[in-house]
Amino acid sequence: MIVIADGGSTGTTWCTIGKNMTSEICRTGGINPFFLAAGDISRLLETEFTLPRNGVSSVFFYGAGCNLPDKKQMLSGVLSSFFDTGNVEVNGDLLAATRSLCGEKPGIACILGTGSNSCLYDGREIVQNVPPLGFILGDEGSGAYLGKRLLGDIFKNRISEPVRDTFFAAYPDTTLGNVLESVYRNPFPNRFLAQYAEFVAANIHYPEIRNLADNGFREFFERNVMQYPDVRQLPVHFTGSVAYFFADRLECMARSFELNIGIISREPIDGLIEYHVAKLAGGFD
What we know:
Number of strands: 10
Radius of gyration: 20 Å
Low-confidence stretches: none
Largest sheet: 5 strands, mixed
Shape: globular
Structural class: alpha/beta
Strand content: 15-25%
Mean pLDDT: 90
Strand order of the largest sheet: 3-2-1-4-5
Number of helices: 13
């Protein structure tokens, strides 16, 4: 049996695949080794992982925060102990996106979820990556970015009264003090900000909200995607909740850059399952 995991800051999707190619899926809280220590991850797994784990031969974990060697080594050790196997492969969420969206074909793979990222993939490996820089310096078009811009416009009185009234009816506990505390003092400020992307999606019919979203996606293309060579000759694929729920606006913005949109998926797990089944169908222990 093999285990495949797609880990993000907000949640992690796990899939086990047995010898007969049957699969089971469960979800746990987010696992990002940049924010969580080994003990935190171990406790989360013991509490929330609900699938059988006897007879696991290999674990393939993809996730945010997994590119730094020390974080990768730490998470690999936790997973090796939890699943009782020495065959653990930990990779970044960007490689998950490429394998899920592109398979073994060249393309541009993009993530638009809590954060954002992109890369040029040659069908085998990532050959170029514009660094996302996180929600403070970058992450254009992400849920955290949209939430940051929305809250900034709300509290700087750059949003019309009808939209403000709608916002505070939906989030009555969102005060300026609460926002500042959550962003500058509490853990996981990116998750806090990203929750407000749901309001943006639900109120996209307001021109000012639509412009806010469009500006975020325009910046994502301008500052990231358009830097890759031959970008107009390659399919541009997307995965992530923001990409999925804003697909219409994303496609409209892509057309303005004369780009060819390929797959838009909510999460990469289905494509990852296909990729690993194709690679490992004859290799189960």
